[in-house]
Every structure is written in structure tokens, then in C-alpha cells.
Amino acid sequence: MIDLTAPQRQSPLAIVFLGLRIFRSLGIAQLVFVVLLIVRAPFGGPVVVVPFVFIVGFGGFSALAWWRYTFQLVDGEVVVTKGVIRVVRLNVPIERIQSIAIEQQLLHRITGLVRVTVDTAGTKDVEFAIDAIARPVAEELQRQAVTAVPAPRPTDGTLPPPVLAEDRVVFTHDRRRLLKMALTTSPLTGLLVLGPLFALGGDFFDRVRAGGPDNVTFHWWWLPIGAVVFVVFSLILNIVRVFLRDWQLTLRSSPTGLRRTSGLLSRTSTASSVDRIQMVTSAQNPLQRRAGLRSVGLTTVGQGDLSLGGCDDAQFATVATLAAVTPIDALQLDRRIHPAEVFLAVRNTSVFCLVLAGALFALTGWWSLLTLSAIPLVWVTKRVGVANFRWGLHDELASTTRVISSATQQALLHKTNTVDVTQSIFERRHGVAKLRLTTAAGAVTIGMIPIAEANAVRDTILHAVETDTRPWI
Fold it and tell me: Is 391 inside any structural domain?
């Protein structure tokens, strides 16, 4: 076992990574100025050594930053010491760490090193990053920070050593599962081809209109062929993206934490304590529903969310149990919302469309009435959404909805930060209200429920917050 109580330094190769990070932080304008100064300036005589002085000084600064950067585990805290001109000492209690991510990008993989980022939710970005260390050291730091079970505190006030819990593999996505993931998710990477198409499209159509030297003429069947080529190319790009990002996607668990690893060229390992998970969500589009898959999200505070694509129903239930929430299928979600939600949405859309049609009438004439076609569309989608919306209150506030795609949300009551009951003028006239439970990493909103029911749910949530002794963050 690696002794992390002794100060640890990064690999000497971290000098390169530190230099690259400092170089990128200079900004594009400054980098362009430096490059032009070195390449095009009329160096002569003693001035010719200026670029070499700059390179040596830059390298020396990176080497000094590497030497001054140390980290260690002391009395249940991660202690980081860094700084070149001034010394900065950062103490991060283990129980405040939200997640630890181990990344191995291509350059790290070539050198056999990894990058570690620690998120405590104390800042917008990660708390600190270790640019280049050996994987065993990184994994030991991750294991001790996330899977450490605090031992009972003795009466003499001394800090006992943590008990480290071993993790186990919950599931691993194979190549077939990854292929299903790619074919059933939105091929967003296919949009990358739009840039070159827009850049070349103007010249292409100019040639078509002018006849061109090759007598290029437009044929109507180019449109369906082009659409098919675009869809196929987008799917291919999406398959490549999923295989690169989620190759050997594996979820591991211990009695206190969860760890997700994946990646082909760049390997990423993200771990978080179960107590840090604020919400469990899932989403399922029609293609995923047909394939029996869904995307699952374990939301934590900060940047370390554990997203798991391509999970089947059994894996979703297992993940929910590991995250200390009840599987959504085991909950009794029998409460509904008031159908006045449909009328409110149609009324607001109608007012907006009428105003927009009136504003466009002077420009487009009677064509402006086409904006009114949004009204029946909103009516249909909202009606289906209200009819399929279900929610329930147990140890957690949970909801499920389905229009075209379906989604679920679950938030444990004791992790509530605020709970609000609000009423608009319209809602007050109908005797309904909107309930919103907010956690440190998201919210669950239940709209258009009777005001008495909303107040009762609010009181139940507040009672759970006051009486539950489990940690909320």
C-alpha cells in the first residue's frame, strides 16, 4: 500500500504538463504576440538570445512549480502545498470531497501518467488538480478519499485511521451495448459536418445557378440522397464518439462510494461517496425505449456527476439501490396534477402567437397566420404530458413523465435545501399550487396540485429534514 501520509510529488514529466497549462493560460492574443516576436522580429547580435532566455525561463518556472507542489493525507485531510512566488497551503477534509476524477488523456497514456481533479463544491470549478502522477498513487488517493469509512471516535479525542472498503464491479458495458447506445441516442456529432457544408454551400449553389464549367445542374433527388448520407455519416460519427468516450464503461461500488470508469484513448475514472449523491434521474427516448435502455444520472454537487448511459431496467434498479434511493418501479407513483395545466399552457401560447401574427402581418400578409399552428401542437403535447405525469411522496419525492421521451426524477427528502409552495393568480382561482423541492444539485417540481395537498407535502418534507440524521451533502 502506498503511504500517502508522506508528502508526494508529481512525476518529473509533470513539468511538461505544467508548462502546457501555463502556456494555455496566457491567452491566444499573448501567444500570437510571442510567436510573431520570435519568428519575425529582426534579431541580431546579443538580441538573438532573447528566445532562448524566454524558453529557459519558462522551463525553469515550470520546474520550480513542480518542485513546490506536494500533496499528502494528514489526519483525514488532503493537504496540498503549492506556489512559486508565494506558498499556498490548501487543506481539504475528506468528508467535504464531492468527487475525485482520474483522467488519462492521450498524452498521459503515452507517458503512463494520469491527471487527478478533486471537487468539493466550494468553487465553481474543481478545487485543485494534480497534473501528472502515477496511476497507483492516484487510485490510492481516490480510494482513501471516497471509500474511507470513519471509525468510531475514541474518547481521548485522537483521530482513528479510516477503514478502507474494497469495491466490486456492478456491471460493464460490452461492445454490443455500446453499439446500441450509439444507435439509440441523438447523433449530435453529425452536426460537425454542418460547418464545412455551410462554408462550401454558397459556392456550390453559385455554380449550380451559373451552370458552371462542368454543366452542374440541380436534381431533386439530390435532397433525399444528401439527407440519407448526412444521417449515415452522423450515425458513424456518433458510434465513434460513444466508443471513444464509453469504452469498457464500468460501475464499481463499495459500502460507501461509487466509481465510474470508461474511455478508449483517454481513460476517465470518477468516484463519489454515496452520501454526496443528491438526485437520481433517468431519461429514455423512443429508440431507447424500444431497445430497453435508458440514460441514468447520479447528480452530485459540483462537476463530478456520474452519468451512466445504456442501462437496462435491471441495471437502473441496481444503481438506484446503490445510491440509497428506492427503484422507481417499486414506488407507488399514483398522484396526478390538475388538467388546468393544459388550459394555462394553451392560453399563454395563444396570446403569444396572436401578438406575433399581428406583428408579422405587415411583412408576410396572411402567411403570418401560420404561427397559430403552434397552438394545437402545444395542446396535444401538454395534454399527453399531463395525462402521463405521475408523482409520489415516500422517503423521496419522485416524479415520472412521458410525452415523446420519458424522464424520472428522485430526490431524498433529507437532502432538501428549500421547499417552496407558490401560487399565481390563475392557480389561486383554481385552488392549486406549485411545489418545488430544491437540493444542492437540482430540483423536483410538481405543478398544479391542490393547495392543501401541497402544504401537507411541504410539512412532510420539512419534518424529514429536521428529524433525519443522515448527512445531506
Answer: no
**Rounded CA separation 460/434 (Å):** 16
Residue 313, Cβ density class (10 Å: 0-12 exposed, 13-18 middle, ≥19 buried): middle
Range of the domain at 357: 340-384
168, with CB counted inside 10 A (0-12, 13-18, 19+), is exposed
Q: Are 325 and 280 in contact (CB under 8 A)?
A: yes
C-beta pairs of 279-282 under 8 Å, 24+ apart in sequence:
279/409, 279/410, 279/411, 279/415, 279/439, 279/441, 279/442, 279/444, 280/319, 280/320, 280/323, 280/325, 280/409, 280/410, 281/407, 281/408, 281/409, 281/410, 281/442, 282/311, 282/316, 282/328, 282/407, 282/408
User: Which ranges constitute the DSSP H helices of 211-257?
Assistant: 222-246
Mean pLDDT for 374-379 is 94
How long, in residues, is the chain?
473
Domain boundary among 331, 360, 384: 384
Q: What is the CA radius of gyration of the chain?
A: 28
The residues with which 104 forms a beta bridge, in sequence order, are 267
Domain count, the chain: 2
Asked whether residue 221 is domain-assigned, the answer is yes
More confident residue, 220 or 246: 246
The percent of residues in the chain predicted with pLDDT above 90, rounded, is 39
Which pLDDT band holds residue 462 (cuts at 50, 70, 90)? Answer: very high
Q: Which residue, of 360, 384, 408, is where some domain finishes? A: 384
> Rounded to the nearest 5 degrees, what angle is found at the Cα of 417, between the Cα atoms of 415 and 421?
115
* pTM for this entry: 0.78
139 assigned to some structural domain: no
Which of 361, 142, 339 minimizes the C-alpha distance to 256?
A: 142
In DSSP terms, 436 is beta-bridged to 420, 445
CB 235 within 8 A of CB 190: yes
Rounded CA-CA distance 92/88 in Å is: 13
In 3D space, the residue among 419, 453, 448, 416 whose CA is nearest the CA of residue 434 turns out to be 448
- DSSP-derived pairing of the beta strands 128-134 and 113-119: antiparallel
Q: Is residue 325 part of a domain?
A: no
